[in-house]
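FIELD: query
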Amino acid sequence: MIVFGFIYWLISMFAFTQAFGQNDFSDDATCVALWRLESGALTTDSIGTNTLTNTGVAADTSIFQEGAAAGRWVNTESDVLNATDASLDSGFPFKDGTSNLEITVCFWLWPQDVASTRYVFCKSGNASPIRFFTIWYASSIHFRVGDGTTWAGAKIHAGDWAGVGETDQWYHVGVTYKSSDTTYRVRVWDLEAGTTLDGQPDNTGTTGKECPVNTQPLEIGRLADSTSNDLNGRLDEIVVFNRILTADEIDTIRAGTFGAASAGQMIITNGHVPKDEIFNFQTFFHNFANGRWTYKEPV
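FIELD: result
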């Protein structure tokens, strides 16, 4: 009790705001999928019914960024989480038959190599009709959209950004794309450096190509119909919206405070901890060590 009381007092001398555990996307109707990649629930969509099929992906409970585990992909073992187009929820972006042609994808990435192309998130394939929407990395974070007629040349736009130069560390990635005006944003946060990747601004612009709805599967960690360039590393907290998020909203996801007010947000301020909150020290120290805190002035 003495130790507990001392730690409680020490923390209460400061004013911090922290969403303990995870973001809360439940009040945002435009959030259509959330894969937290927890042990025993790697395929579970915590928001919708977009249940994935798992081939080889393992839960890593020693290196993770959110919750208590991350998904671990090994490129030599053809690991993948995927779902057919028909199995995706009706509001999932670019699903066949939908009118939703806007997408935001956010996730935590721990690359174990950066010399080779590694596919992360693909609603596209390698066979005809050819690739539509893909996010991948090599020495840079990339995404491409296409109209399904060709892979190279004018039909495809590459949104390249500064190099992911370091392996075995966490990056938070946010990619947005709106088909009607072809605008996009690529935002990458280097957790270890505590800034956007290489201190550069987001990569924004227009692709000039509209990505249509399609029947291609969703593949996480691999490109459909391809046997090369599989992901080698870890992913955590993959979330998909059918609207365009702002850079600030992407940052709240990274900070673990999206929807925190309705998620039972832990507020420690002026020596007071709300009585209806549960103080989870394991979560506290994990989040503190990984920089998932925002400072709040005392009131």
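FIELD: remark
The mean pLDDT is 78.
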